[in-house]
Design goal:
Aldehyde Dehydrogenase, Chain A, domain 1; 17 helices; 6-stranded mixed beta sheet; 2 domains; 7-stranded mixed beta sheet
């Protein structure tokens, strides 16, 4: 491969050069507290050509917190919630929305810095980093609109069997929010924002890769919400989160990552029946390209589905089943399409493939490729699997079978296993036996064939995509999974429900109680018992 991926410092455009950002503060109980302890240094996956060859660039550092700071954050969140009596959980929906509007305004002011940090911390392209930031802002605004709709529906009284009631959604308590490295802003905020808006208080643990980019937002959190509503936790997740879970004082675990880690964290809680979990976990989404598929369309969607952000997405297509009768032609077109993808650094215009974020990922992907070759497969595209430092050129591997790691394990990177099949029962059986159940993509131009696949797959995965890639959006659609892939459902409305519970106030319809309720409502003495209508 002749393309030059990495360059020297002088090759970096001025607009994308970065000065190391050394974070020495963390947010707890409404204050940015100075940190003087050990730190975790952040090295970019974007390597620089130096005197000694390729070198990882130091782009900053952040506090390496301990149990002590984690417990302080938990106590701050508990005090702010105050058993449901705190300022934030008892605040009216309208006033919570005002606080969130303030946060969005302050967040947007930090757009340029957050986008640049997204690029440098995880190697995401400039265009995709911008999209992640802007989509997150759109998500917050959509969540606010959804909350207004929910509250409007709750602003009326219901009368049944001689009882009058008002039913609203109320908060659950203290929430731990932990996001992933691949969408460290957007995916984290898809749990953090609805958790806050519903009146919960939280501990926010940023991901290992993608931690620095949250630092510019800490002042926005501090200045937008009452003290103790948002508290940050830094340090090694395995060291700081389990002790907090073992206290039994956490009400909700919001986690995006591996099912193994999620299971381990849940087991730490002494009252698992009290713990609500909102989880987005492992996925091995399959694409099924039938003999009646439109091959160019299938290739186009599968290229995007497998290789957007280097395949480092839970919603990525991670295995492709292709009918034997069209496998050769599909493989030819797919390999040609891969070869046309532009590789390089995130700031290069039109770049598709960038360095991978995790330091150990190139070695793992090589293991997967070597294992496949040892079991009878080949890398069928030119330069497939070529590695240089943190850069891995996409490898198309064929024919993959059940003996290989690539058949079973979620590779989470730019290696695409293709499995030839004769009977449609083969991909169906694959999905039945898979521990994952997030999504599937079906490619066919035959309506009867598509219909015959929809009915079994809707009971095996949570989303069936017809002639299109697997994906999360639009955010109004439910996002969840079966088996080891998820617990709970996320969308702008579903997430609000996930972080709240239906509570009601009720009384008998007699003269005394009607007078009492009317007086409370007319005087606006209660934020819960209210007929205020948010526009």
């Amino acid at each position: 491969m002749t393309e030059r991926i990495f360059g020297t410092e002088s090759d970096i455009p001025a607009a994308f050069q970065i000065e190391p950002l050394h974070q020495r503060e963390y947010l707890c109980n409404g204050e940015l507290i100075k940190w003087e302890g050990p730190v975790s240094e952040v090295y970019s996956p974007l390597l620089i050509e130096g005197k000694n060859g390729l070198e990882r660039k130091l782009i900053g550092s952040y506090p390496l917190g301990t149990e002590k700071e984690a417990f302080e954050a938990m106590e701050a969140a508990l005090a702010a919630y105050d058993n449901g009596r705190g300022e934030w959980p008892t605040m009216s929906i309208a006033n919570r929305i005002k606080c969130m509007d303030t946060f969005v305004f302050k967040m947007v002011e930090q757009r340029d810095q957050v986008v640049k940090l997204l690029m440098w911390e995880i190697g995401k392209s400039y265009v995709d980093s911008q999209k992640e930031f802007d989509r997150t802002v759109d998500y917050i605004r959509a969540t606010i609109d959804a909350l207004k709709d929910v509250d409007r529906q709750s602003s009326r009284f219901e009368i049944k069997e001689g009882l009058v009631a008002q039913i609203r959604r109320s908060p659950l308590g203290v929430v731990i929010c932990m996001g992933p490295f691949n969408y460290p802003l957007n995916e984290t905020f898809t749990t953090l924002i609805p958790a806050i808006l519903m009146g919960n208080t939280l501990l926010f643990k940023s991901p290992k890769h993608g931690s620095l980019l949250h630092y510019p937002l800490l002042k926005a959190f501090r200045d937008s919400f009452p003290k103790g509503v948002v508290n940050t936790v830094y340090g090694r997740g395995a060291d700081v989160i389990p002790p907090v879970m073992r206290t039994g004082k956490v009400n909700v675990l919001a986690f995006i990552g591996s099912s193994k880690v999620a299971n381990d964290l849940k087991k730490q809680h002494p009252k698992i029946n009290r713990l609500r979990a909102v989880l987005s976990l492992d996925a091995k989404n399959a694409a099924i390209v039938t003999a009646k598929a439109d091959i160019p369309l299938s290739v186009k969607e599968c290229i995007t589905g497998t290789l957007s952000f280097n395949g480092q997405r839970c919603t990525a297509i991670k295995i492709i089943f292709v009918h034997k009768t069209i496998a050769d032609e599909f493989n030819r077109q797919f390999s040609e399409a891969v070869s046309k993808l532009k590789c390089g650094m995130p700031w290069q215009e039109g770049v598709s493939i960038t360095p991978v974020a995790e330091p150990g990922k190139p070695a793992y992907l090589k293991e997967c490729i070597d294992d496949a070759i040892a079991n009878g497969a080949k890398v069928i595209n030119e330069n497939g699997g070529y590695t240089n430092g943190s850069f891995v050129f996409p490898a198309v591997v064929y024919p993959v079978n059940s003996k290989m790691k690539l058949f079973i394990e979620e590779q989470f990177g730019p290696v695409i296993p293709i499995v030839p099949y004769e009977s449609i029962e083969e991909p169906i059986e694959y999905q039945i036996n898979s521990p994952h159940g997030m999504q599937v993509s079906i490619f066919s131009t035959d309506s009867k064939e598509v219909a015959s696949l929809i009915d079994p797959f809707v009971n095996l995965v949570s989303r069936v995509n017809i002639n299109s890639q697997c994906q999360r959006g639009p955010d109004a659609f439910p996002f969840t999974g079966r088996k080891d892939s998820a617990e709970g459902t996320l969308s702008v409305t579903d997430a609000l429900r996930a972080f709240s519970i239906r509570s009601l106030v009720t009384t008998r319809m007699d003269a005394l109680n009607k007078s009492l309720i009317n007086e409370i409502v007319n005087n606006r003495d209660s934020n819960f018992l209210s007929t205020d209508f948010i526009l």
